[in-house]
Design a protein that fits this description.
Order of helices and strands of chain A: EHEHEEEHEHEHEEHEHHHHHHH
Helix content of chain A: 40-55%
Shape of chain A: globular
Strand content of chain A: 15-25%
Oligomer: homodimer
């Protein structure tokens, strides 16, 4: 412990999340390389501009248009939208070997599994996967421009087994970059805890005709639905042997009250006609509950309704 | 019994439902008078045209533009949309006295109560109210034109107390007009039984982005939601001491399978930008369940979501 991860880092999915964390790591001295799609030309010519509550900065990062150019990495940070997960095997193929660690900071459930399965071709797999949950408010406001408005801390955990030296070394790299990063013992635990907020506020944000957090908190029925959904997530987490405390639900409710009129990522995607992360945030949690015989009537309603909205 | 109601009948809300039943009663020799709004001019000049699976016919009915012109009735048949229920007191005032019977064929819960309260000014009230449930597929396709495509039978019951001679006399009038009309002992029972279909298929028809009955029956999650909603209605009915049999749920499922791609009235209203009967069909059943401490999570989700769609 105390060691800081010092290998070659590749960022896949350099949007509002990936580009933000990658830029902070790069600025703090890490060796970070970015795969970019739509912003490639702009960032190559003008660099990356981060406006942040923690201080604005500008960087000229190493940027690549394809994974073949990006080449082998010691650590891959995945910030892809989960709706692009089908591309993970081909994205990882040219940049991973048996020693590469893959850290996913994506939303919802099922991402570690998808990555582990893609890594099997290198003779590694689940043991090289680290899961992380980001509490970050940031947006890509223009090509090469990230606006970081609030929060930013991380929780990470090995997908299989206890935290290792490398887990702490990666956390230390984030900490050195000014990003608070807690190391946890079980990735499913931090994922389900985040779902306690994500399921109701992403789900109702789309299903209830673009209800932001203030609308949901201020409407008796919608608030009742949100609380009921939170309790269903707590119950569903037991399908993965995760015991979320009731106080976490109360904390999430207080936290949401403090946020004002906040739009969830799924709501913003919906308003912009982009694909919705329905499967990772609602579908997969719902199916795990159903397989374990845990009733999740409200999640089923959300899933049924939202799948018809896309 | 055997007697046929022979008083002066007024039809309030002469749309696809009211005009259809009124026209059938008129054709069979009853003394029926129609209050009409948007179709008044047309029907006064050209009469009422009914296209029906039971045979087409044309009538020139007595038609009125206001309740003052319509005048006192022995029986008022209410076919108003429940979203217009606030107008009931002023509509009934010039046409009712203490002896007038009011039969509501409207959707959902709470209509008999609204009418009973409006009748109190005449020194009558709940004892003059009869509730009815219509199983009718008909549309107003143009001014003065009704298209009756399927079904048409009625179930009626006194709002307070056991069936009386008058209940059977009214049913006999419908029967003589070729409309099958069952007399039941409890109006809440026939209303809750109809809600077993109306809540899921009207509700999901709007919430799940205009899902017709075939879409709902063909999607695993939506079908699960629909069945769950049916079971919630069965449970909620106990708030009114109504015991709906489980076989009724199965019958409704089979019935829906036989319908093909059917659009509920709320879905059609939604598609045409008209007010939705949310309170009568979902809100009031939900509140009765909540007051009785019966959990109705799916109904709450529907109510929360649909109220945001209007």
């Amino acid at each position: 412990v105390g060691e800081i991860f010092d290998g070659r880092i590749g960022v896949i999915g350099s949007g509002a999340l990936g580009a933000f964390y990658g830029a902070r790591l790069l600025r703090s001295g890490r060796d970070v390389h970015f795969l970019m799609r739509r912003d490639y030309e702009h960032v190559r010519e003008h660099g990356l501009q981060v406006y942040s509550k923690d201080g604005d900065f500008h960087l000229r990062p190493p940027v690549y248009e394809s994974v073949d150019e990006l080449g082998r990495c010691d650590l891959v940070i995945i910030g892809l939208k989960t709706t692009d997960n089908a591309a993970i095997p081909e994205l990882l193929a040219p940049i991973c070997d048996a020693h590469t660690i893959v850290l996913t900071l994506q939303n919802g459930l099922g991402n570690e599994e998808a990555i582990a399965s893609a890594l099997e071709r290198f003779g590694s797999g689940a043991e090289q996967v680290i899961g992380g949950v980001a509490f970050l408010c940031s947006n890509r406001t223009a090509p090469g421009v990230i606006n970081h408005t609030d929060h930013g801390w991380l929780r990470i955990a090995e997908f299989r087994g206890e935290p290792r030296l490398r887990t702490h070394a990666i956390a230390a790299a984030f900490e050195k970059a000014g990003i608070s990063c807690e190391v946890h013992r079980r990735v499913v635990a931090i994922r389900w805890e985040k779902l306690v907020w994500n399921v109701p506020f992403n789900g109702l944000g789309v299903a209830a005709n673009r209800a932001d957090s203030a609308i949901i908190m201020g409407d008796d029925t919608l608030f009742r639905c949100a609380r009921g959904l939170m309790e269903e997530v707590v119950a569903a987490a037991r399908a993965d042997d995760v015991e979320v405390t009731p106080s976490h639900v109360e904390r999430m409710i207080d936290y949401t009250r403090s946020m004002g009129a906040y739009k969830s990522s799924m709501q913003i995607d919906y308003e912009n006609g982009r694909p919705l992360e329905i499967e990772a945030i609602i579908g997969e949690p719902m199916r795990r509950a159903q397989c374990a015989g845990i009733p999740v009537p409200r999640m089923e309603m959300l899933y049924g309704v939202i799948r018809r909205s896309v």
